[in-house]
Every structure is written in structure tokens, then in C-alpha cells.
Design goal:
By secondary structure, the protein is of the alpha/beta class. The chain is built from 28 helices and 21 strands.
């Protein structure tokens, strides 16, 4: 790429006025406007959004600087493709020595490492430094640590322009050059992904808190110990993230180290948070219209100061490598997904030990669903339901109609699918309001929009960037998002992730203003939306009469004893879920003679857990076979999820999930295939590459199903060479349902078979 004339002019102007720019009078905002913005415009980036992209798809996000504790708490630029972060750029005034000063380098690396970005740039225009941000930052690092490119004088840009443009131009990022360079320049030593490091961090917290709580609170049960440890960790993480986002006063947790009675004073912060947020995370007093009982356990526990000091001291600059303002919900979800795979057990001597859950050990670990798969499933379920053409007669009231859509993840885990669905709806609502007269949606008693002020005149138009109000974000969450999980800890993690998503973009000032103006706390109580229970087993599990199916069932099983003989521990482990009682407005009883009730969910999404039939009890197998006649000799829990949740889906709804492809051709799934192809509808099948899940070698596929039969289904199988699939651009083969023939109803998979099928479809005699 030839050196642009505009770049030469920028360099000449900087060199001519170098001394003035190096003075303390010339600030970062001026530098960005006069030099950095034009520099990246020459690299093809739409720095000022002149193309008018919606907020979710802007090339460049300008982060307003928030000064907290004397530190800048937001990277100056975030460069994105299709709304996905690629790299940060942090700018400093020219008086800063970028080559030698350790603080700017540490600051940038904390941002990018916490956001899980491979490369990012530190510059004052005179100097230009690129860092490998996969190397875990430390306060003792030199400025040169992990630096992989350095241009010491802007006059040298002409020599390095081709190299810079081949990596950081928008075109280079789109063509994959940025990713290839990042991979080729990856440091051999010292790399530690932020999710791995943070998982190790909070696991050490769990160990320390569990041991101390068990020691100082001898009457604490195993169940209550797990609850207390999880809830304390969640509360600390929530408040610390809010501090870095400017929602909570920076340093309030750190100040607890000054003095004794740390846990007592920490609880005072928790009480204050309850007054501000209203979430179940901080719920200590019984309140009208709240379904969940208050937490009367944790405020009365004893925790030694030493255990808390060790946790809190590593949460702040300069000891902490984490920048919580950019730690995304997705990364937090990946951390918690692994964290939830272990449980605290009390020994006979009331000593706490942490061990892997039996079901995780037998399944070979926990595997987090890649973000691109979550996004695809959300787009093809929720996205299809909110299309404008579905509401054409009601165009002016579309948001009200969208509020009636109910979205469920029946095994929500750490909440990745619900977060994806919630983010999709947030983006959709914001863009719809902006496209339909934003000013009118920013007024009235319950405004949906407000304009976030910015210190950069070129960003966001006259009054700033349009954003959804907290009240609107809360309304969308409560109306649309629902989840269930058998693990109470997973339920709390999902709530935590969703609550942090509600608060994105807020500040302490906006939270206080909302309290004063509307007398409303900032966060919703999610007790009626995210619930704990076994999605596959109802309360009738204990009442099922013995039949020949149960021969061989041990007499101490729940089915053999009946409901009256079930121990509390066993009931807690099985955790049956009453759908009609828990979601009465959505799941309604089926009329006599009908398999499915009125209503139901509009979209059901997720990654059903895989539990092979060999790991199920005889009671569970018998129960599932009575409930679902499509089950044959061999199956797993994901198959039961498909059948159970189709019964919770509206006929007009969509079911989207990822699971094994075994059912497509396996001999034990003919009844299931017949049901899916004739009684409901298969819309899309995408058979993914073999190693989608890291360290889990299993063939998986994405499935989009309809609540009612269809005439054709679409199928795509990735060639083995496609390691990182772009599933948004696949070209499907359309298959008429009539070609899927009895008695086995096998799905056509092989590329050769697909070619033959294509030739058949092109022959008019067969179509």
C-alpha cells in the first residue's frame, strides 16, 4: 500500500509543532481529534460513523474517559468488525514517554487482556507501540514486556506503513490478516488467557472462604456452606465490576482492609446495595410481591479478616491484572461455567473440601458453547420471531408486541444463551426506537431512550449517543427472558450475568437520579424469571405407580416408596420442577385428550446437557419412557430435552439448540426422527466441524426446529478443512420432507449423497 499524502501531511504538521504538542497544555482529546482519528481513517476505519451504522455495528466505539481514583477507566478506542471487538487503541499526550513509561503499557495491557483481545496499540502519534495482550500483565513489567512492534518517531511511519496497514487496516482485519499476524506473533511463554486466570483466582477464593466458614461456623450445613460461599463471591464480583464501570464508588471494597470487622463492614455494603438495586443478589428483608425468601443466613456468619483481605487486595491496581470495566459477560460466563463444575463437601470433622461434581467427572468435563454458535441460534430463533413483517398491521406498537415473546433456556448454566437473547433484544429495541423518532421515545413518564453525553463532539451527534434507559432494559428482561437449571448455583450465576448486563452503560449519577426521580431501584428481582429445578422431571415423578417397566427397581427408590418416603436429600438431588405452577401465565394445562397445553414459550434455546442412559437411574429411565413414547432402547438426556421442550413450545414457536448428531442416523432414534419430521418441523440442520468444543471430540450439530410441520428442511455439513466456520454464510441444501422415508427416516448426510440429492432436485420429474 502506497503511503497516503494525508499521512505525510500529518507527520509534517506534528514535527513542525512538536514542542507545543509536548507541552502540558496539549491534551489527549486534542491529539485524538487532530492526529489519531485521521490516522485510522487512512486505514479505512469509519472513525466518526459517517456511514450511519446502528450502534451495535459501528466500526469504532469512543470510550469517554471516566476518572476514578486518578486513573482513566476506559480505553480510548475500540475497533470492531460486525460489532465484535478486534483491538483497543489507548492514546497518551505527546509529553508521555511511551518507550520507557511502565504505567501506560500496563494500563493498555490490562484492558486488552481482560477483554481477551490478542493485540492492541498504545500511541501518542509520535510513538506507536503494539502489544501482545495474551501475556498476563504484572505491575513489575517493563514497558517493553510483550511489546512486539515499536515505531519511535512518526517520521518513520512512511517506512512502516505497509506493515501497519497489512495488520490494522479495516480491510486487513476483514481478510483475516490481523488474526493470522496475531497467531504468528503469539509469545511462546507467559501467555495466560484471562478466563483461565480469573477462574484460578475465584477458585482460590472459594477454597479460602469454604475452609474459614466451615471452621468458624460449626453448625453450617453443606448446602448452606455452598450457598454462602457462592453468594459472597457473586456479591464481591458484582460490586467490583460496578466500581470499574463507575456505578459504585471506586475503592470502597479496598477500604475495608483499613481496620478490623471486615465481614461486618462488607455486609453493610451489601445492605446499601439492596437499597440501590433490588436484585435477589442483595435481598435481606421480606418484601411485598417478592417470591423468594430473604437471605437471613449470610449476615449472621463469621468470616476472619485474613480470608477477606487475601481476596480484596488482589482486586485493585496495581496488584490486579484485571480491568473489570471491559470484562465481558461472555468471559465471565466461561469462567463460571467451569467454576460451577465443582462443589464444596463437608467431611465428618466439618472440614471443607472442594471436589468435582460426580456428573461432571463422568461426562469428562464442562464445555462452554462458543459465542458464534450462541449468536447463530439466537438469530434464527429470536431473530426470526421479531422480524417486522410478523407485525405489519401493528407497526406503531411493535415493541409492545415484542414484549409478549417468551424466551426460555431450560438448562441455562452460566446464562450464555439467555445473555445472547437479551443482547439481541436490547439492540433490536434501541435500533427500532432510533429509526422511529428517538426524541419522542425519550420523553414521558417512562422514557425508553436517553442521550448519553460525550466529551467528543464528533461522536453520537448533537446530544450524544442514544441508549436504552435502565427502566427499559429492565422491562425487556422481565417480559422476555426465562431460564431454568437444576443447579441452584447456576441459577444465581445466570441472574448475576443478566443483572450486570442491565447495568451496562450506567453510572453512579444515573442510578442515584433514577432513585430520586422514579423512586425505583435499578435492578429487577429475577425470582419469577430464572428458577431452579429439573426441566425433565415433574412432581408426578414421585406419584408414578409401579408397572412392569419398573421390574428390578430397588425398594429404596422414590418410585418404589412413593412420595411420602422420599428423603429431603433425595428430593433436593432430583429437584422436580412444576412448569404449570412456576410459569402459570405461559404454561397452561392441556385440555382433555390433548398432549400440549395452551400457550407455551415462543423460543426455546440452549445446549442441553449430555448424560448417557448408563448414568441414569432406573427410576429416571422408566419415567422418561412413560412420558415420551418416541424413546427407544438407547438415548441420552439431550434427546429427552428435545422431546420435553417441544411440549413447552408454541406451535408458532422455534426451538434452537446444539447437540450430538447421533440421532440423525442412529438405529435407536427412528421413532424420534419420525416425530421430528412428521409431527413437528425441522427447519435447519448444520453439522459442525469435529472439534467445536475444545478438548471434547464429538460430532455436534445446530438444530432449528418449528412447533408445527414444514414441507422442507435445510441441511449443511462443514468440510473438515473449515476449522473456524462462518455459519452465517453457509449455503443450505433444501430437502423435501417427502424424501425422508419410513421406516427409519434417516437424514442424508454424506457430501456424495447431497450431490445426488441435488441432481434429483434439479430433475423436474422428481420435483
Amino acid at each position: 500500500m502506497s503511503v497516503p499524502q494525508e499521512l505525510l501531511e500529518l507527520v509534517e504538521r506534528f514535527n513542525t509543532n512538536r514542542e507545543a504538542y509536548r507541552s502540558g497544555q496539549y491534551n489527549e482529546t486534542q491529539l485524538r481529534r487532530e492526529f489519531i482519528d485521521p490516522f485510522f481513517q487512512l486505514l479505512g476505519w469509519d472513525v466518526n460513523n459517517e456511514k450511519g451504522y446502528a450502534e451495535a455495528y459501528k466500526d469504532v466505539i469512543h470510550e469517554d474517559s471516566i476518572k476514578i481514583g486518578g486513573l482513566t477507566k476506559a480505553p480510548d478506542y475500540c475497533f470492531r468488525i460486525g460489532g465484535v471487538r478486534k483491538f483497543f487503541v489507548e492514546t497518551k499526550r505527546p509529553s508521555v514517554n511511551i518507550k520507557e513509561d511502565i504505567d501506560p503499557a500496563f494500563q493498555l495491557r490490562r484492558y486488552a487482556w481482560s477483554a481477551k483481545l490478542p493485540l492492541s496499540i498504545l500511541t501518542d502519534f509520535e510513538e506507536f507501540a503494539v502489544y501482545d495482550c495474551r501475556v498476563k500483565p504484572s505491575k513489575t513489567d517493563k514497558a517493553s514486556t510483550a511489546r512486539i512492534m515499536y515505531v519511535g518517531n512518526c517520521a518513520e511511519f512512511t517506512q512502516h506503513w505497509d506493515e501497519i496497514a497489512s495488520i490494522f487496516s479495516r480491510d486487513a482485519v476483514l481478510k483475516g490478516s490481523f488474526d493470522r499476524y496475531a497467531e504468528s506473533s503469539k509469545a511462546k511463554k507467559g501467555t495466560a488467557e484471562v478466563d483461565t486466570a480469573f477462574l484460578k483466582e475465584i477458585e482460590s477464593w472459594r477454597d479460602a472462604l469454604a475452609r474459614n466458614l466451615a471452621l468458624r461456623n460449626p453448625d453450617l450445613s453443606q448446602h448452606d456452606l455452598n450457598f454462602a460461599v457462592q453468594r459472597t463471591i457473586d456479591r464481591i464480583i458484582f460490586l467490583r465490576i460496578c466500581e470499574d464501570r463507575g456505578i459504585e464508588r471506586y475503592g470502597q471494597l479496598m477500604a475495608l482492609q483499613n481496620g478490623d470487622r471486615m465481614y461486618e463492614r462488607l455486609c453493610e455494603l451489601f445492605y446499601r446495595a439492596d437499597e440501590r438495586y433490588n436484585s435477589g443478589l442483595f435481598h435481606f428483608q421480606k418484601e411485598k410481591d417478592r417470591s423468594e425468601s430473604p437471605d437471613t443466613l449470610t449476615p449472621n456468619l463469621t468470616i476472619d479478616d485474613g480470608a477477606l483481605k487475601d481476596i480484596i487486595k488482589n482486586l485493585y491496581y496495581p496488584d490486579s491484572p484485571y480491568e473489570f470495566s471491559v470484562l465481558s459477560a461472555d468471559i465471565l460466563g466461561q469462567v463460571y461455567e467451569q467454576f460451577l463444575g465443582k462443589v464444596i463437601r463437608l467431611t465428618a470433622g466439618h472440614r471443607a473440601v472442594v471436589e468435582e461434581k460426580p456428573e461432571v467427572r463422568k461426562a469428562g468435563g464442562i464445555y462452554y458453547t462458543p459465542t458464534y454458535i450462541v449468536d447463530y441460534i439466537v438469530k434464527n430463533t429470536v431473530g426470526k420471531l421479531v422480524r417486522a413483517e410478523n407485525f405489519q398491521p401493528l407497526r406503531k406498537t411493535i415493541p409492545k408486541e415484542i414484549s409478549k415473546i417468551r424466551i426460555l433456556d431450560p438448562a441455562c448454566g452460566s446464562g450464555s444463551f439467555l445473555l445472547g437473547a437479551y443482547q439481541y433484544l436490547l439492540d433490536w429495541h434501541r435500533d427500532w426506537y432510533i429509526a422511529n423518532g428517538p426524541e419522542k421515545w425519550a420523553t414521558g413518564r417512562s422514557p425508553a431512550l436517553y442521550q448519553a453525553q460525550t466529551t467528543l463532539p464528533s461522536v453520537g451527534g448533537q446530544g450524544g449517543v442514544w441508549r436504552l434507559t435502565t427502566a427499559e432494559r429492565r422491562r425487556i428482561l422481565l417480559n422476555n427472558i426465562y431460564g431454568v437449571d437444576i443447579d441452584p448455583q447456576a441459577v444465581e450465576v445466570t441472574k448475576l450475568s443478566l443483572l450486570l448486563k442491565v447495568l451496562e452503560g450506567e453510572s453512579e449519577q444515573t442510578i442515584v437520579k433514577q432513585l430520586k426521580m422514579f423512586h425505583e431501584r435499578a435492578l429487577p428481582d429475577l425470582g419469577n424469571n430464572i428458577k431452579c429445578g429439573n426441566s425433565l422431571i415433574g412432581t408426578d415423578f414421585y406419584n408414578t405407580p409401579l408397572t412392569p417397566l419398573f421390574r428390578g427397581e430397588k425398594m429404596d427408590s422414590p418410585l418404589a416408596r412413593g412420595a411420602g418416603g422420599v428423603s429431603d436429600e433425595e428430593r433436593y438431588r432430583i429437584n422436580p420442577f412444576d412448569w404449570e405452577k412456576e410459569f402459570p401465565e405461559i404454561i397452561k394445562p392441556a385440555p382433555a385428550g390433548r398432549e400440549q397445553g395452551a400457550g407455551g414459550f415462543d423460543a426455546v434455546i440452549g445446549n442441553p446437557p449430555y448424560i448417557p442412559i448408563e448414568m441414569m437411574s432406573e427410576s429416571q429411565k422408566a419415567y422418561f419412557q412413560q412420558k415420551h413414547h418416541q424413546l427407544e432402547r438407547k438415548y441420552d438426556s439431550s434427546i429427552v430435552f428435545i422431546l420435553a421442550l417441544l411440549q413447552k413450545l408454541k406451535p408458532s414457536g422455534r426451538l434452537g439448540f446444539i447437540s450430538s448428531i447421533a440421532w440423525q442416523t442412529g438405529e435407536n432414534f427412528a421413532k424420534l426422527r419420525e416425530h421430528l419430521f412428521t409431527k413437528v418441523g425441522i427447519l435447519n440442520l448444520i453439522n459442525l466441524p469435529f472439534d467445536v468444543f475444545k478438548d471434547a471430540y464429538v460430532d455436534t450439530g445446530i438444530y432449528i426446529l418449528s412447533g408445527k410441520p414444514v414441507n422442507t428442511y435445510s441441511i449443511y455439513r462443514f468440510p473438515k478443512k473449515e476449522k473456524f466456520p462462518d455459519i452465517n454464510n453457509v449455503v443450505f441444501t433444501e430437502v423435501p420432507i417427502r424424501l425422508i422415508s419410513p421406516p427409519d427416516f434417516k437424514v442424508i448426510l454424506e457430501p456424495r449423497s447431497q450431490k445426488i440429492l441435488s441432481r434429483i432436485l434439479e430433475d423436474k420429474r422428481f420435483v
